[in-house]
Design goal:
The protein is an alpha/beta fold and 230 residues long. 32% of the residues lie in helices and 20% in strands.
């Protein structure tokens, strides 16, 4: 699988779907959709929820199967662990190349979660879908007017790119970026790094034309390594 190509798709999608969108303002599926809309992403936007016809002005679809083929290439997956794994084949059929998995309940939760994370990676690999996360807070791509996060404000456009294992650290950095008007190009909370580790994101940022090396401090990578052994 070409992780670099798929990461480019993640940060520059033609269309994105929030899988498991919610009407509840406290749910991940609501906040993610709200932030995508608020940032002004001008690609295709879809949301799935079988219980309601509309969320935030977006007509919802009953399932991934109702999404037009090749209209999306990225999915923001706001489902539980088992549902996340089960939906991947349907997303692959629709042309999705990259997805962000918000849900916890994987490796960080114990033995059963470790097994679920292994299955998540095996299924994603077999479908050639690149998965960011799980157990992460989302990502930002200001050149694409995309804020697919469950927390944090949307920062100004710039040329600094950030990858952080910790969602809290990323949130704090983006809050400071906004408060001080520091421009950001890409930012991602990588969570458990189940399939794609932080080195892969650094390699991507190194070749990303939107992440400039115009001065010694113009390209910044925030890295935090946390042991998840139990």
């Amino acid at each position: 699988m070409n992780f670099q190509l798929n990461l480019d798709t993640l940060f520059n999608p033609k269309g994105i779907a929030v899988i498991g969108a919610s009407t509840h303002p406290g749910k991940f599926g609501f906040v993610a959709l709200h932030n995508i809309l608020a940032a002004g992403f001008d690609g295709n936007i879809f949301a799935t929820n079988p219980m309601t016809p509309e969320i935030l002005g977006v007509q919802t679809l009953e399932s991934v199967k109702s999404i037009p083929e090749n209209s999306i290439d990225v999915a923001m997956i706001c489902l539980g662990p088992e549902q996340t794994i089960a939906v991947l084949p349907e997303l692959a059929e629709k042309g999705v190349k990259a997805g962000f998995v918000v849900s916890g309940g994987f490796r960080e939760s114990g033995f059963e979660g470790i097994e679920l994370e292994k299955e998540l990676v095996e299924v994603a690999n077999s479908l050639e879908i690149t998965i960011a996360g799980p157990n992460g807070q989302g990502f930002v791509s200001t050149p694409a007017n995309l804020c697919s996060q469950i927390v944090s404000p949307y920062p100004p456009l710039g040329n600094i790119s950030i990858a952080s294992q910790s969602g809290n650290i990323l949130s704090a950095m983006l809050n400071q970026a906004r408060a001080r008007n520091i421009g950001i190009a890409r930012a991602i909370s990588i969570g458990n790094q189940a399939q794609v580790d932080i080195a892969e994101y650094i390699r991507y940022f190194g070749r990303d034309p939107e992440t400039k090396l115009s001065s010694p401090m113009s390209r910044v990578y925030q890295m935090e390594e946390t042991s998840m052994t139990h």
